[in-house]
User: Which sequence fits this backbone?
């Protein structure tokens, strides 16, 4: 019986050792699994963090660029308003030219015509007070025959000269608009630099 008891104890000891071995192996596997999963989680955390950082940086750059574009557009809009005001002011000043300045402008225009010709002067409605036939006769160079048209150009200041079916436009608003693109760089330089 002692052998049986000894044999049983050995079997139990052997089983205990095997169970302990499996427990130790399972603990090691669990520990290794935990370490691997921790490393994976840490790697995923770093990848996610980099993605979030990249997304935030991208969103910041978009917001920053949007802000710069809006600021630039606001500045350009402000400059455009100022330029429009400058040209509107110029148009108003031309409409209000004093008689001496208006006559000087008309005389300089008439002096450009060097051939003997018949020229019809068509005044703008807002410049009618600057024109009479007697005045044109006095101002006319000797080689020109000027006649004051009975027509007028509604809502305009300045005048149009008609010579042999060709119209020469000296309406102030049109002169300003025609020169606008040439004048903008100089005005911009003077106002905004």
Assistant:
């Amino acid at each position: 019986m002692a052998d049986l008891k000894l044999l049983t104890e050995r079997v139990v000891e052997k089983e205990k050792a095997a169970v302990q071995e499996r427990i130790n192996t399972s603990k090691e596997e669990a520990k290794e699994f935990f370490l691997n999963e921790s490393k994976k989680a840490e790697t995923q955390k770093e990848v996610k963090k980099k993605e979030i950082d990249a997304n935030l940086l991208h969103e910041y750059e978009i917001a920053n660029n949007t802000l710069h574009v809006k600021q630039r557009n606001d500045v350009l809009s402000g400059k455009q308003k100022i330029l429009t005001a400058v040209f509107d002011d110029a148009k108003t000043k031309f409409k209000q030219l004093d008689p001496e300045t208006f006559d000087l402008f008309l005389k300089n225009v008439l002096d450009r015509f060097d051939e003997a010709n018949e020229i019809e002067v068509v005044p703008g409605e807002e410049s009618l007070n600057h024109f009479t036939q007697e005045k044109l006769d006095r101002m006319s160079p000797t080689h020109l025959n000027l006649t004051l048209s009975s027509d007028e150009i509604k809502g305009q200041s300045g005048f149009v000269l008609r010579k042999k079916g060709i119209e020469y436009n000296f309406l102030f608003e049109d002169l300003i608009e025609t020169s606008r693109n040439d004048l903008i760089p100089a005005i911009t330089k003077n106002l905004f630099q």
